[in-house]
Design a protein that fits this description.
26% helix, Ribosomal Protein S8, Chain: A, domain 1, alpha+beta
Length: 100
C-alpha cells in the first residue's frame, strides 16, 4: 500500500491476466468494473472515473522459479484526492497476496 496515489501511475502486478480479471470485480468494491475492451476496464467513482489498461509482461525468473507479471496503468479523471485514496487503499488491500 502506498502513502499517496497520484491521478496517473503504472505498476507491475505479480499475476496472470486471468487472475487479474478474477480479482478485479472484488478489488473495485461497490463500484462496478466495466471491461471496455481487451486489456481495458473503466470504473465509475462518484462523478469521475478510473481507466485501467494492462498488458502481460514476460515472466520474471529467479533461479528455477518463474513469476507472472502484468503491467497495469491507472488513470483517474475527475476523482478527488480523498476518493482516489479511499478507492486505492481498498483496492490494494484486496489485491494483497501472501505476507507483505
Amino acid at each position: 500500500m502506498q502513502a499517496h496515489y497520484p491521478p496517473r501511475f503504472e505498476r507491475e502486478m505479480g499475476c496472470t491476466e486471468a487472475e487479474w480479471l478474477g480479482w478485479l470485480p472484488g478489488a473495485c468494491g461497490a463500484q462496478a468494473a466495466d471491461l471496455a475492451a481487451l486489456g481495458q476496464a473503466r470504473v465509475d467513482i462518484g462523478a469521475g472515473r478510473l481507466e485501467l489498461r494492462w498488458a502481460p509482461l514476460p515472466d520474471r525468473q529467479i533461479a528455477l522459479m518463474r513469476l507472472p507479471r502484468l503491467a497495469v496503468q491507472f488513470s483517474f479523471t475527475d476523482v478527488d484526492e480523498a476518493d482516489r485514496q479511499r478507492f486505492m487503499r481498498y483496492f490494494d488491500l484486496f489485491m494483497q497476496r501472501g505476507g507483505g
